[in-house]
Amino acid sequence: MHKQNKAYLFGLAAVLMWSTVATAFKLALREMTPIQLLEISGVFSWVFLSLVLVTTKQYRLIPEYNKKQITQQLLLGLLNPLLYYWVLFAAYHLLPAQEAQALNYTWAITLMLLSVPVLGHKITPKDIFSSVLAYLGILIIATHGDVLSFQFKQPMGVILALSSTLIWSMFWLWNTKSSLSPVLGLWLNFTGALPVFLYLIFSSPEIWSISARGFYGAIYVGLFEMGIAFVCWLSAMKLTQDTSKISLMIFLSPPFSLIFIWFFLGETIQKSTLVGLGLILTALIFQRNHKPD
After folding, report:
1. Is this prediction's pTM over 0.70?
2. Is residue 264 exposed (0-12), middle (13-18) or buried (19+ Cβ within 10 Å)?
């Protein structure tokens, strides 16, 4: 098979897996708390990434990096996956899946805005326009379309969802200068968080009474959201001859996700969600495609 066709298959596989996670989050959270979901999914993701590291022999690269680089990645694990997924799961616990997943897509806008003070990037009028468009979409979703009332239906859930985009963006900004391979870097991040996961598991007796359905849901989240999808996406980006074609595939995820949410969770998809998500995606596409002035 041609390398580009393989890239499309890997990219589509990653998009489809990411499209299911909002549904998987909500199904798992029906059976457990956000912190319990974090504990179980985090451990299984670490196991999967460890297997990838061993089978691809990337563990041999570890001695090539200095202690400062290794320590930095271990400490970043406290930010992602530990804090990021804790906040994200808490947001999904409070919000309908359709709203939480739509708000989470604004992380790219948050990343662009934070790059100004953190990396010294310049912001353009087009950046400002895309930001206003995205946050108008957030306002529409958060108020269920009643924008003029400025009354949020679930303010804490909205705050947590937007906070997760802030944490995710800070993680990637601090990670920009890392020279480690992506899989090795992610494994170190999860290794840094692993002691906390294990401590929480063994200090919480009630975790052993979680239903089998909840346990399987947490495993699914750990393997697919945190592990397999990431490896597939990296494979697609490595095989493709045009990264822009693969990167644009990520915009297939929101509509697929809404279909899964409607079918498996039984949520009625609100018009305000469709309008708000449309504005957010338009802002993201505009921001990604515009040329610097």
Report:
1. yes
2. middle
